[in-house]
Amino acid sequence: MIRRILEAVTCRTVRIFFRRLQVTGKEHVPVRGPVLFALNHPNALVDPMVLLCQSGRRVSFLAKEPLFRMPVLGALIRAMDAIPVYRRQDNADLTQNRKTFEVARRVLRSGGSIGIFPEGRSHTEPRLMPLRTGAARIALGAVDAGGLDIIPAGLFYTDKMTFRSAALLCFGPPIRVDPVALGPDGEPPAEHVRALTDRLEEALGALTVQADHHEALRLVETVEALLLSASDEPRRDLDARRQLRQRLTRGYSSLRARAPERLARVQSRVTRYVEALRQAELSPELLPRRGYRAVTVVRVTAKALVALLLLLPLAVAGFVIHAPAWVVIDRIGNSYRSTHPDAVATVKVLGGILFFPLTWLAIGTGAGLWWGWPIGLGLGITLPVAGYATLRFLERLDRVLGGARGVLLALTGRRHFLRLVAERKAIRTELLAIGEEYGV
Question: Is residue 299 classed exposed, middle or buried when 0-12, 13-18 and 19+ CB atoms within 10 A define those classes?
């Protein structure tokens, strides 16, 4: 019962934190039978939350042992059937991992599913960390005559630290694990462990975006935005965006090795263009490929204004009530940006789970004591709706204001507007030519 409640709260929170949450490859996940999910780990506790909500299976995660000693978090992850992992960097007794492996293998042998992050820790590196052998050892030690599947899963975030960004969970084809003879200590042979780990590393590499350094990733993200804004390709297809970033990172590496001068020229051109957009207070998507059409502008503006007017009463109340908690959560989360950037989203998610319900409870209780419990209860139920109305209102308002800046530039500085559109088209043409020339 407790687990079901926690899962419901977690999934609702994740869906609010991410404006869009997409899953691909779900057909690779068996409905029943033993499954070991192996994922990359870029976003701390948000990563298992996404898998938990989107896998369709009851997943038990392997988690570092210090989490189990935290006052509230420890109780929560125990309720979610998490299994502790003892690590050298935590000064833990590594012999305890024998018990960890036994529990994980028992779950798999009973037909359950395990979630594991074979990189060993959450990180902000631009590529996968070297994989630990734990996933392979657990799988090979648990497999029986029927075999079991390792499902590699890639997590892709458009901006992992930002509230209302987007996330993709991409399941890859299963890696079939066949039985092997175990040693006297109950462990699988080292050569089989290494071979399976290599297969898993290759599978995860195909599902994730990797680059040699952060500068390459930043350039790739910028170029992706330019390319999508200059084409008819839908921005909402996150898997297409993941594949585009993979192509761009391969192109970056190829150009850096074979034509570094050309790469420098392209990078400089993109940087100048982005700076011109910044000075105009625009983003690429606010420059429509075919310009602004009067009929479209009027229709979109009218719909947006009607929605804003309908949302306004609840949004104002929701903003006043939720602003203090939001400021606290935002400041706490952003304080981790310089030291633990991979934990920013986790802090914001956990802060939302804690502070917003406390706000509703406090106001509902106060109203109940002052005006009576029916009003207090009704207010406590209405407050989450008001908070969501505020969120939708602010998002629509941001889009309206952004579009207004684009229309204003198109009307008052048409020549500058057209130059920006033309330069974006020229950059796209050059990038596509480079892609054909270098086969990426």
Answer: exposed
- Residues facing 84 on adjacent strands: 63
Core vs surface per residue 231-264: b (16+ CB within 10 A) or e: eeeebebbeebbebbbebbbbbbbbbeeeeeebe
Residue 409 pLDDT class (50, 70, 90 cuts)? confident
**C-beta atoms surrounding 33 within 10 Å:** 14
The CA distance from 34 to 111, in Å, is 4
- pLDDT one-digit tens code per residue, 304-353: 889 999 999 999 999 999 999 999 999 999 999 999 999 999 999 999 99
CA 204 to CA 210: how far, in whole Å?
10
Q: Are strands 113-116 and 83-85 parallel, antiparallel or unpaired?
A: unpaired
Q: Which of 71, 82, 64 is nearest to 10 (CA)?
A: 82
Arch. (CATH architecture) of 2-207: 3-Layer(aba) Sandwich (3.40)
pLDDT band, very low/low/confident/very high, at 367 (cuts 50, 70, 90): very high
Reduced DSSP (H G I as helix, E B as strand, rest coil) percent helix, strand, coil of the chain, to 5: 65, 10, 25
The token duo for 145 is 């005559």
Q: How is residue 326 written in tokens?
A: 């939001």
The dihedral formed by the CA atoms of 179, 181, 186 and 192, expressed in degrees to the nearest 10 = -70
Report the alpha-carbon angle 23-27-141, nearest 5: 100
Domain ranges of the chain: 2-207, 214-289, 294-422
- What confidence category does residue 233 fall into, taking pLDDT thresholds of 50, 70 and 90? low
pLDDT digits (tens, 9 = 90+) for 109-134: 999 999 999 999 999 999 999 999 99
SS3 237: coil
Model-level pTM? 0.92
